[in-house]
Prior knowledge:
Blueprint (H helix, E strand, L loop, with lengths): L14 E3 L4 E6 L3 H4 L4 H9 L1 H28 L4 E6 L11 H13 L27 E5 L10 H8 L3 E7 L1 H14 L3 E10 L3 H14 L2 E3 L1 H10 L1 E3 L1
Parallel strand pairs: 2-3, 2-5, 3-4, 5-6, 6-7
Antiparallel strand pairs: 1-8
Amino acid sequence: MTCDMSPSPVLAPSFSVDPKRSALLLIDLQRMFLDTSCSLPEQFATNHPEEARYFFERIQQCVIPRVVKVLGIARTNDVPVFFTTIGSSRSDEVDLAPWKQLRNDRMKKASGGRQLYYPVGTPEHGIVNELKPMPGDFVMNKTTFSAFLTTALDLTLRALGKDTLFICGLATNGCVQATGIDAADRGYMCVLIEDCCAAWEPRLHDSTIENFGRSFGAVVLADQASDLLIKGGSVP
């Protein structure tokens, strides 16, 4: 999908980016979603092989290589990097919403006792090795789709003087969208990096990208995001 959008009665946001006031936010790039030995990817591949082929090809050929590039640019240019994860902080999962607990129970029945949302501290909960957080990066676990609701993300960004967010990760139509819309409602200028995001199906990704770019922020590709993080500039 390209970042060109058809004419709309709603004017897409347009604004200037200052790298010194920007932060990079990477959403839920965890093994439990990306490692095919974990319960969700395994069940997805078994029950929806065509969609799974699309998803994992996009992750390996598009998303991870481009995230690696943008991540390196951010670190080189002293742009703060925030990783989020999703999962319970407790083994009994009582800090998850009831519907998330039900999803976990359903996955356990389907996969021989393995859960969907792995708790903090388990290998499956961690960030994939290709994108391993470095000293100085922020890693914040959440129990909600929006990264703002159950973390200190908002407080930390404001303490750092950051008002522009470059957002990428998983899933485009889930935690990425929820976090981006929440950020926009809180007054942040948002830049969604299209080729650094993925959803389980292309139609879900494409419709979310179009909707976000029309109403909530700018949509760019990784190369443009890299340039903006180095030199700043206007979007879209």
